[in-house]
Design brief:
Helices cover 80% and strands 0% of the residues. It has 8 helices and no strands. The protein is elongated.
Length: 144
């Protein structure tokens, strides 16, 4: 669960570790990895906004977040504003570096998604990513 909670590894690292190194059953590895990956999502979604609001009270924080929001909106949101929550779920579901629940929370915050829809999209993405990673791990295990 701890490996799944980390922003770099998430389910991509936790499932192979649980099955390959620790000998967990596939179902056990999947459930623990998904639960661990989802644990930081609620605090992230709840506190990214208030944290940025607090930091914006300081000139350095205000300059940073103004730059971040302006850059994000001009470079990414303007070109992709028709996508939305479905795209967020797909983005989180793709088990590649920088495409997990942590990044999904940051995207949801930057795009201004409401808590419950963002949580649903990120959760569905993590569930799908877990299935994809587990399929690859089990395929490799069978092949070996």
């Amino acid at each position: 669960m701890l490996v799944a909670m980390l922003p770099i590894s998430e389910v991509r690292g936790a499932i192979p570790l649980a099955v390959g190194v620790y000998g967990f059953s596939p179902m056990q590895a999947y459930l623990l990895s998904v639960m661990g990956n989802l644990l930081p999502v609620i605090p992230l979604l709840l506190f990214l906004g208030p944290s940025s609001d607090y930091l914006r009270r300081f000139s350095v924080g205000d300059r940073f977040f103004t730059w971040l929001f302006t850059r994000t909106r001009s470079k990414h949101i303007k070109d992709h504003e028709n996508f939305g929550l479905g795209a967020l779920a797909i983005f989180v579901a793709v088990p590649l570096p920088m495409t997990g629940a942590w990044t999904g929370c940051a995207i949801a915050f930057l795009l201004g998604f409401r808590f419950w829809p963002a949580l649903a999209a990120i959760t569905s993405g993590v569930l799908v990513a877990g299935v994809v990673v587990m399929s690859v791990v089990m395929g490799i295990k069978i092949a070996l």
